[in-house]
Automatic annotation (TrEMBL), chains A, B:
SUPFAM superfamilies: PLP-dependent transferases. The keyword Glycosyltransferase does not apply. InterPro entries: AspAT_Ic (IPR024551), PyrdxlP-dep_Trfase (IPR015424), PyrdxlP-dep_Trfase_major (IPR015421), PyrdxlP-dep_Trfase_small (IPR015422). This is Aspartate transaminase (EC). Its EC number is 2.6.1.1. Gene3D superfamilies: Aspartate Aminotransferase, domain 1, Type I PLP-dependent aspartate aminotransferase-like (Major domain). GO terms for molecular function: L-aspartate:2-oxoglutarate aminotransferase activity. GO terms for biological process: antibiotic biosynthetic process. It comes from the Bacteria.
Amino acid sequence: MTTASVDVDTARRDYAALVDRGLSLDITRGKPSPAQLDLANGLLTLPGDGTFKAEDGTDVRNYGGLKGLPELRRIFAGALQVPAGQLLAAGNSSLELMHDAVVQALLSKLPGAERRWADEPTLKFLAPVPGYDRHFALTERFGIELVPVPMTDQGPDMAVVERLVAEDSAVKGIWCVPKYSNPTGVTFSDDVVKRFATMTTAAPDFRIFWDNAYAVHHLTDAEPALADLLALATEAGNADRVFVFGSTSKITHAGAGVGFFGASEANLAWWVGNIGKRTIGPDKVNQLRHALFLEDEAGVRAHMRKHAEIIGPKFEAVDRILTEELGDSGLATWTKPTGGYFVSLTVPEGTAKEVVRLAKEAGVALTPAGATHPHGDDPADAVIRIAPTFPVLADVEEAVRALAVCVRLAAAERA
Amino acid sequence: MTTASVDVDTARRDYAALVDRGLSLDITRGKPSPAQLDLANGLLTLPGDGTFKAEDGTDVRNYGGLKGLPELRRIFAGALQVPAGQLLAAGNSSLELMHDAVVQALLSKLPGAERRWADEPTLKFLAPVPGYDRHFALTERFGIELVPVPMTDQGPDMAVVERLVAEDSAVKGIWCVPKYSNPTGVTFSDDVVKRFATMTTAAPDFRIFWDNAYAVHHLTDAEPALADLLALATEAGNADRVFVFGSTSKITHAGAGVGFFGASEANLAWWVGNIGKRTIGPDKVNQLRHALFLEDEAGVRAHMRKHAEIIGPKFEAVDRILTEELGDSGLATWTKPTGGYFVSLTVPEGTAKEVVRLAKEAGVALTPAGATHPHGDDPADAVIRIAPTFPVLADVEEAVRALAVCVRLAAAERA
């Protein structure tokens, strides 16, 4: 990126005026807005008076059913690209399923593994960057070394991935958000997915953590197809390398949705054997509530269009204002996602932290610079994640305009 | 127990008649009956149309709130004997909280610990017997050795507990169901609780897993008081040794309730720091649903009286029929619990497995003999757990009468 000259006096004056406005705005996290949550308020009175039987007659109020309700698993099988029989419906969070997958692998030998991960001398995960801070934090906590892999506009740089997984058996996993990736918005290309399915790994117990968090979260009618990793890997004899995760958190209610885990039969047997010691079953009442509310795959699709109507204009506003404020400055590039929850803004090297600091002092909270990288360290100090869904449109516009002021000042003072 | 003589021909004839009846009854697990679940059907339409704000204004539909809703924590603070500020409300299961406490201790150093449990050469838990099979299975899975401790009618034999925890730093924990214990129905005496609070442990990171599953589950008006372990331990400078667990599973809906975890501030900081990497918060909508339904501590008490009206007669039937069938036989003793979910039946040594087998062949499913002991092994082969809550009263009566036939036959054939 070429850094155009910025008049430092103008930049300072603009910033002083911004601070004087005393804003208090927050575009830090990928949270749905109240208007989005309202779309699922039907859940607040479901499953309804006297309704507590699943389609197979199970009393959802009682214990049992480790795999979750078949009717709900069926609704999401298509979107998550996992046969319903291999897709489990669980608690209110997919993050906890990813965490527990790592924990179970640490403490109980995975199918194909020579030993428990806890007994390995070194553990590494590949981390496409920029990526999702909660993925990184989860693995870092267990002392798992994160090896950055550059993201391209097709997905992770597969030449790098293939080399690392082939040469080092300590590399046990990779974090992926394959559709509308967090934070770049990229959907992995067919070639990338196919290479994931067929690549040679040194570790017999390598796992792809396929966090398909935004499977149905389209912002436009242009819905990019994602190749079916589990099917391709199964075809290639590598079924066990795939762990699929998903949830309704950004479909219905963020804190009260249903998480999903999909995998091969061998992985599922391992999973169910382990969680059977942990729980007598998930909240099936909430699963029935969701099945009744969403009805079927078409119901999910119709529901997601209402989300797009609310948040689409916010994403358009981010792009419009960044274009107005920084478009011809040479100071920034940014993604124009057609789905998901984030815009990734790239500012001049060495200024991202300063931009976030300046914004904070002006009353605009941003995700910490570096959060998109392992250990919170973006070596170029250039990537800022924008999460425009939660605030109302006017606040998004104001926050992004303020952000542009901070980008200009940081660049000017660095020049 | 003296084993009176039983006429083997009579016993065989009775058993043949029983088999001929082709029963199909199940008194295996501590599950609430549909009639009990019906008591909480108000939950099926709660929190209600447009109701999604907690008392502090939190939108329960969105992410966040690792500690759970204060209004719900307050309702259960008294019953669980944990100050509301130190009591966390979580997901739908307390078993998973116990599991995760063990997992977190394995992988992240506990307050006071010298190292992670995973890095200890040997790990042991004390297991009061007879006890709860799911507790045992959870710890066995991680290779934790279970050391049996006899239960008395006052709680675990504290002379044994004190000796074991004082002399062996590999002993890291003990499983306790302190009120209406599973399966004996014993409530720990004040002396036992006080000794737990004050005893000297060789391990600096010893933890009492205080599973107060039946805190409010009275069957009669005689409600035994349980001393406040956390308060006593805190007073003795041992606050960190206490992990309290509880849940609404057998209060509202077994599969869709709320679990609780209570502990010292240091333990809570450790816990929240760990689960903060796992989840963005529990299902707060379900917590609000419960707070609205139960209202307050008096609401819980009133609700539990309705349970007692349903299951009290089932426990009375167990006692009445065992008395009628075996009372003067000298073949069996059994507990007469005033709360909780189980009756513990003791049959002549070496016959429990055979009784369960005979019952199964006659169409009456019982919890496997030995399940009340670590590794499923009751050395005396004498304890059978009866769970009378789930079947309707007539089926409980029939099942227990059938059980008595099997007890008589097993004893006669062994004689």
